[in-house]
Amino acid sequence: MGGIACAAATRDLLGEVPVWCWRSRRLWWVDVLTPRLHSLDPETGRLRSYAIPFRRLGSIALRDRGGLVLATERGIHAFDPESGAIEFLVDPEPGRPNRRLNDGRCDRAGRFWVGSMNDEAFVPEGRFFRVDPDLRVATILENIIIPNSVAFSPDDRTLYFADTRRFTIWAFSFDISEGTIGDRRVFAEVHEGEARPDGSCIDQEGYLWNAEYAGGRVVRYAPTGEIDRIVSLPVTYPTCCCFGGTDLGTLFVTSARFPLSHLQASREPLAGALLTIETGFRGLPEPLFRG
User: Fold this and answer.
1) Residue 225 DSSP label
2) What is the pLDDT of residue 192?
3) Which candidate, 216, 219, 159, places its Cα nearest to that of 189?
4) What pLDDT does 280 receive?
5) Catalytic one among 107, 163, 198, 203?
6) Which CATH code, of 3.30.43.10, 3.30.210.10, 3.20.20.70, 2.120.10.30, is assigned to 4-289?
7) Can 198 be counted among the known catalytic residues?
8) Maximum Cα–Cα distance for the chain, whole Å?
9) CA–CA separation, 263 vs 103, rounded Å?
10) For the chain, which end, N or C, has fewer CB atoms within 10 Å of the first or last residue's CB respectively?
11) Residue 97's pLDDT is what?
12) DSSP string for 71-137
């Protein structure tokens, strides 16, 4: 296990959902609360940031026809980083002004799976959606507080999903040909103080890496749910992780500066930064949304 480094000192209020684009060889991630979209070329260190005209930017995905997909409080939009053009695609939950979309990820059939949450109170009003390439939307789960940790096993037989405020990651049987989930089991429960499961990614061996919000660490879980290893971080609020780099061998970890007090933030100079860890493991290419 290699050392921990700062890839970008962005001081995000709520950095989230890093995605490695294997086409452009850039790392993309968001600041949910600003909201801003960032991209980093690790080879040159060039950082670009884009102001996004929404109140919240919950997650992103790569789009097969180019650009990105943005999940916001006003539904899902396509974004062209070169021109800055934004195109509305679909709103899975119209007419609910107090909600926003949160964590999301594409499966290898090109569907976008994304959860929603009440943006004003931690109450179980969120849902989990499947957005098909033809932009049809199916509601998969309900009664969610904060949807997170969307990830798929390398064999496409398991979908992982967490409700952060219920301190639990679940594993569902998954049929990629039909885009459906089946039996659910508790994959992992977090009971370390205030720590709770946030965003996840999967490595080539099928192990799940989870960022523990308020836990100051990233945990690698075996497919059985047993803890394989723990990486302690110099930030209290890591939020999500993904593998990137030309060989998919670098683990990128986003983090949050909110809700640290001014004094706490002064003691955590890397809070809100994009971190990297050389883990000795490799990830999987990020799927594309085909819509």
Assistant:
1) S
2) 84
3) 219
4) 96
5) 198
6) 2.120.10.30
7) yes
8) 51
9) 29
10) N
11) 84
12) EETTEEEEE-TTT--EEEEE-SSTT-TTEEEEEEEE-TTS-EEEEEEESSS--S-EEEEEE-TT--E
**Residue 255: in which H helix or E strand, if any?**
strand 250-255
Count of residues making up the chain: 291
| CB of 67 closer than 8 Å to CB of 248 | no
> What's the one-letter identity of residue 91?
D
The four Cα atoms 250, 269, 196, 192 give a dihedral, to 10 degrees, of: 100
Per-residue pLDDT, 149: 98
78 closest CA partner among 39, 47, 52, 49: 52
Report the distance separating Cα 160 and Cα 177, nearest Å: 17
Residue 186: predicted pLDDT? 98
